[in-house]
Write a structure and sequence with these properties.
Order of helices and strands of chain A: HHHHHEEEEEHHHHHH
Strand content of chain B: 15-25%
Strand order of the largest sheet of chain B: 7-6-8-9-10-14-15
Number of helices of chain A: 11
Number of helices of chain B: 13
Largest interface: A-B, 21 and 22 residues
Largest sheet of chain A: 5 strands, antiparallel
Helix content of chain B: 25-40%
Oligomer: heterodimer
Chain lengths: 219, 427
């Protein structure tokens, strides 16, 4: 397991790829090609290293790619080995370029492979997307971000979540954000006082999620 | 290796034929079909009767078998386990069938075993099951635990990070034996005994609210919960409806089922079940030319809205292997066919080739699928062929046992004492 992780990390850090020549115009495609195996056949053991590389690249196309990947809208074309956005369109699939979003033609299902990250991988992708989604204009995306946090809470979500509460226009979402912030703060807040006050605020809460947080602190 | 087996099998069959064991074929060749067409298992088994009728019709169109027309003899054991034994006896002694394709539940198979072992019948059993058995008179074309339950549990542990397991099953031999194996396996993987919750319900159980609520409450300690379901028959409808009603999303508590496929889901609104899992050796959504052809002929035979599933593929492979073995043996006589079965190869509908092992189990790929909104499955994991293991390695009393009907002539052979424990099965 550890060995596999090291191998993946090595491949990622070396960034070797035949498609490297195209780097200038298609930076995201180049990055994906450098990690083609981890993108095409993702596993819970390899996805964290890949997500770290994608997020560290700061490329503007990364959030859209991650959403497409999670929602199974990314395809691998056999003829050129490149990744595309795709959407079923009539009998075939309409492809779009991964960097520019430009139309890349229509293909049939025999020409391409749909990438199907499993639920464990999709959960990791969802958690990585949270930072982008918490401030999105679309309330459905903000809700998706909150669901993702509830499913796999982590320390680095606390600050983005706190910063998004004041500007939240939807009262129901704001209430959910505040509750999630309490749940996260009880476990991850930096100071002891903050954690204790968050724990107190969960007093009498019968929700399974609140009990889950308290039980994790107790054990 | 498989090639070698095949040659030995053929040579053996030729010897038998030469010795005058096989005689000129009496026509017609009779195929018994022993599936419940009424009662709680009819939801799953009726389709298997239909697929047998299609396979027989197709073979007759190709000229039958050994110069004879094949005749299907269909009986209805009505989800009544003792009735399975009576119907099997009727098929073998009154109808004098040459082979039986049948059974879904293990309790019905256990009911039939003494009859077919006494009368030296031949049964092809098409459903994934609990293992711990290898009858001289049965070929198991469904998955053994190492071809379904164990890989699915590995998927839960490695890919979904499940830390706490709810093993929900119908109360009979298959779920109880499978869950014993899984409990022992999970403990060997470092899961604490108190993190394994086991529950059994009767056939046809319909009130799932309390059990689903108990499963949701398992998450109160912050551990990821997953459900492994060995629920069988129409109880599944109530179970999945309750999951949807309780809002249990596959992202929160994934459920993997071993006895739920396209046929069981075809009567359900699956939009709330998207992402829950099933482990099988076949899914209808497999994108291969052989599967497209199979689906086309099935729809033409049974109707445009009908779906295909894993036990149907098992019958498809089993029936074709039986036809090829009988052709190679030049006879449908049970011992001759049995000898010719070892090493039989036939293409899977999902790609690759299934082959028959000396322990009467198949080598087949393991697939894991996620339920889609249209009631089909997205295949998210597919292995190469895995050899079915009759005796599990995860229970100490059966780890020492092996089955080899070809060379050892024994289905329950103790490898430590090097003796055959018994020639008949445990009923």
């Amino acid at each position: 397991m550890l060995l596999r992780f090291i191998c993946v990390a090595l491949v990622i850090s070396l960034g070797f790829s035949p498609a490297r020549a195209q780097e200038g115009a298609t930076p995201l495609q180049t990055l994906l090609q450098a990690n083609a195996e981890a993108v095409a056949n993702p596993s819970r053991g390899t996805v964290d290293a890949l997500l770290a590389v994608l997020l560290a690249s700061d490329l503007p196309g990364v959030p859209a790619f991650l959403e497409g990947w999670r929602d199974r809208e990314i395809y691998l074309r056999a003829s050129d080995g490149l990744f595309y956005f795709g959407r079923t369109d009539g009998g075939g699939i309409a492809l779009r370029d991964i960097d520019s979003g430009a139309d890349a033609g229509q293909v049939t299902s025999a020409d391409i492979t749909e990438l199907r990250p499993n639920a464990g991988v999709r959960r990791a992708i969802g958690a990585a997307l949270v930072v982008f989604q918490l401030l999105d204009d679309d309330p459905a995306r903000r809700l998706a971000a909150l669901d993702a946090i509830a499913r796999s809470p982590s320390e680095d979500q606390l600050d983005p979540l706190r910063m998004s509460i004041a500007d939240e226009p939807d009262p129901a979402l704001q209430a959910r954000k505040i509750r999630l912030e309490r749940l996260l703060a009880a476990r991850f807040a930096p100071s002891v006082d903050e954690r204790i006050s968050a724990i107190h605020s969960l007093r009498g809460d019968l929700g399974v999620d609140a009990r889950a947080v308290l039980n994790l602190i107790l054990t | 290796m498989t090639h070698g087996l095949k040659i030995t099998g053929l040579a053996l069959a030729a010897t038998l034929a030469g010795a005058g064991v096989a005689t000129a074929q009496d026509c017609p060749v009779k195929v018994g079909v022993l599936h419940s067409l009424s009662g709680s298992m009819a939801i799953s088994e009726t389709t298997l009767k239909d697929v047998m009728l299609m396979l027989v019709e197709q073979q007759n169109a190709k000229g039958g078998l050994l110069g004879c027309e094949i005749e299907a003899v269909v009986v209805d054991p009505a989800s009544d386990w003792p009735l399975f034994a009576e119907k099997a006896r009727e098929l073998l002694t009154i109808n004098e069938v040459d082979v039986i394709f049948g059974n879904w539940t293990s309790v019905s198979r256990k009911s039939v075993l003494p009859v077919i072992e006494e009368l030296n019948g031949l049964l092809f059993y098409p459903v994934q099951y609990e293992g711990e058995e290898s009858s001289r008179n049965v070929f198991y074309t469904g998955a053994a635990p190492n071809q379904q339950a164990i890989p699915a549990t590995d998927y839960f542990l490695e890919e979904l990070g499940v830390e706490k397991f709810a093993l929900l099953g119908t109360d009979y031999v298959y779920p109880r034996t499978t869950n014993n194996i899984l409990e022992s396996y999970l403990i060997s993987k470092g899961i604490a005994a108190e993190d394994i919750f086991v529950n059994y319900t009767p056939f046809g159980h319909s009130d799932w609210a309390t059990i689903v609520a108990d499963v949701v409450a398992l998450g109160a300690d912050g551990k990821q919960v997953g459900v492994i379901s060995t629920i069988n028959g129409d109880a599944n409808i109530g179970f999945y409806k309750e999951l949807a009603a309780a809002g249990v999303s596959a992202d929160d508590i994934p459920v993997v089922a071993f006895s739920v496929g396209e046929e069981e889901l075809s009567g359900l609104d699956t939009s709330e079940l998207v992402g829950h899992l099933a482990a099988w050796n076949y899914f209808m959504s497999a994108d291969t030319p052989a599967n497209a052809e199979f689906i086309e002929s099935w729809k033409a035979f049974a109707g445009e809205n009908r779906v295909t599933n894993d036990p149907m593929e098992a019958h498809y492979i089993g029936f074709n292997m039986w036809v090829n073995a009988a052709t190679a043996a030049g006879s449908v006589e049970v011992d001759a066919v049995r000898a010719a079965m070892y090493g039989q190869e036939f293409p899977n509908l999902t790609g690759g080739t299934a082959f028959m092992l000396p322990n009467h189990h198949l080598a087949k790929p393991v697939l894991i699928g996620e339920i889609r909104a249209d009631g089909q499955f997205d295949i998210i994991s597919q292995t190469s062929e895995v050899e079915g293991d009759a005796w599990t390695d995860y229970l100490p009393e059966s780890a020492v046992l092996t089955s080899d009907w070809k060379d050892l002539g024994c289905g329950m052979y103790n490898t430590v004492t090097q003796t055959c424990v018994q020639l008949t099965s445990n009923y």
